[in-house]
Specification:
single chain; 183 residues; alpha/beta; 7 helices; 4 strands; 47% helix
Length: 183
């Protein structure tokens, strides 16, 4: 896999935390074979640091994002990766609008984890599992929210809740794409 891009709105809360957790889960599972992970925002606050609350909540769960600098999403970023993981449907829609050919590799985090859970694609490699998930997208989905809430402006406790959710979901994503317990 050439790389994974994580997308949110400002690239200062959710996507930096998810990037940190995903990078850690991939390194733990794949070692030096882990694909690169980056992040951007649909309205990226170019050059801004991650919020202090995001840094603290990520640190408490083992991810280091102190050096993060926000970037605005570009077409070239989407073109350069094999998977785009969005924090909310609105971000997925923006990615698809700027790169319609990326639709089959652009998901919300919760959507992709759900599709991988439902797929039963043991024995396939990550790219085949991703393609299979894209084909299952049109099946009726459960009626629950597949967006990760934006904690911007909330107290640290809200960030901690989002950090827990992102840490859990990125771990499930890695297990779903690369197989449980496989290296």
């Amino acid at each position: 896999m050439r790389g994974i891009l994580v997308v949110c709105t400002g690239n200062v809360c959710r996507s930096p935390m998810a990037e940190g957790f995903l990078r850690g889960a991939l390194a733990s599972r794949l070692g030096e074979d882990a694909p690169p992970v980056s992040s951007a925002g649909t309205h990226g606050w170019e050059g801004s640091s991650a919020t202090a609350e995001a840094v603290e909540a990520a640190r408490e769960r083992g991810a280091t994002i102190e050096g993060h600098r926000a970037r605005a999403l570009t077409e070239e970023m989407v073109e350069a990766v094999d998977l785009v993981v969005c924090m909310a449907r609105e971000h997925r829609d923006v990615v698809r609008a700027i790169r319609p050919d990326a639709a089959d590799r652009t998901f919300t985090l919760k959507e992709l984890v759900r599709l991988l859970r439902d797929g039963g694609d043991e024995g396939r490699d990550a790219s085949e599992r991703l393609a299979a998930a894209a084909t299952r997208r049109d099946a009726p989905a459960p009626a629950y929210d597949e967006d990760v809430a934006d904690p911007l402006g909330q107290p640290l406790e809200a960030y901690r809740g989002i950090a827990w959710e992102l840490d859990t979901m990125t771990g499930e994503l890695v297990a779903g794409l690369w197989g449980v317990g496989r290296r």
